[in-house]
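Sat 14:20. Reprocessing the chain from the morning session after the first attempt stalled halfway. Input below, unchanged.
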Amino acid sequence: MAASTLDILGIGNAILDVLARAEDGFLAAQGMTKGAMALIDTSRAEAIYGAMGPGVESSGGSAGNTCAVAAALGARVGFLGKVADDALGRVFAHDIRAAGVAFPTAPLQGGDPTARCLILVTPDGQRTMNTYLGACVSFGEEDVDAAMVASAAVTYLEGYLFDPPAAQAAFRRAAALAHAAGRQVAISLSDPFCVGRHREAFRAFVARQADIVFANEAEIMSLYETDRLEAAIEAVRRDAGLAAITRSEKGSIIVAGEATHEIAAEPTTVVDTTGAGDAYAAGFLAALTQGHALPECGRWGSVAAAECIGHFGARPQAELKALVGA
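Finished this time. Tokens:
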């Protein structure tokens, strides 16, 4: 097997994030489910954007955030995702490349505009997301760069990409290419409502194609339709070779075969939980591809997540290499 030239290749929705602070009453008035991600159309996106307070815009999306954080930790990273040939698409491309991430996907010409996610952050730090997928839905099998997949130690797939129909086929192609090259495939479950929309497809992918699974408590319990975390852990232990389950202030649980590792959360003051799971996956995979033991991978994940939730926005603001002691 040839040596990898990338540590991590992320595949996901290329989205421009718009973050703004909001009170619980605003969410209720807008009919939003606190802490969840809802898919919205153009008119709904315009209505929410018009009602929001002042926002901060940055390139985002779940896998995009993971890639940027992993690059900040010294990993060699690429990203595949679809933007439009418009102003927001150019902002996204510039931002992710400036973060040290290779981004070769050709922009969509003449179709829907670049996706955006309207994120409301309440005083408790919880984020509620409203996503207009736009150009993301055009990402398909032809956008999977076979050479990049074959060159990456881990191909990391974002569960939100199960929503656009063509993307599931792209996922399966990417997984097949990665395994044919002797590489690993990781997937993040992304959101319990997303899991609920595509539960059977997720279960099949986890059982047959994923080597590494990332999920929080709600996502993993939704996947296996149980209200007992212990039952979900045993189910994913049977299905996947390696799983990391995040539990907010309770830390995380790493499941690998018969082994179980409990990882403590890093102390921090919660400002904004946007991107916490993305950052955890980034820290975990950056450490894993550098050859660290699983408990150390979990520690890197916890450190990256703590840094992320300690400020507004999903991209790192501190020197992550110094924080993890790399």
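Residues 219 and 231 are 13 Å apart (CA to CA).
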